[in-house]
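Protocol step 4 of 5: obtain the predicted structure for the target chain.
Materials: sequence only (see below). No template structures provided, no constraints applied. The aim of this step is simply to have a reference model before the mutagenesis design in step 5. Sequence pasted as it appears in the construct record:
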Amino acid sequence: TINRTGLQRTMWTNNRTQHQKTYPVMYQQISPAKHLLTYQHKMLTHLVIHQQTQEILSRFDYSLTHSVNPNHMY
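Step 4 output (structure tokens):
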């Protein structure tokens, strides 16, 4: 059997390393307040993009169902 905790720890470390590469600004030595603001801004941007994506996808779904079956009631 695989040592689950060891595997999870490795995965977590890899994820964190990947995260550090993706968002290096989050890990710079800056004041906690500025760090928090940067983090919040990034999260907010992420949420807004996610929300817009969801809206676009639902619109696409809607038009797709309606074009395939015009009598389909939403």
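Step 4 remarks: The chain has a mean pLDDT of 70. Residues 1-28 form one domain.
Proceed to step 5.
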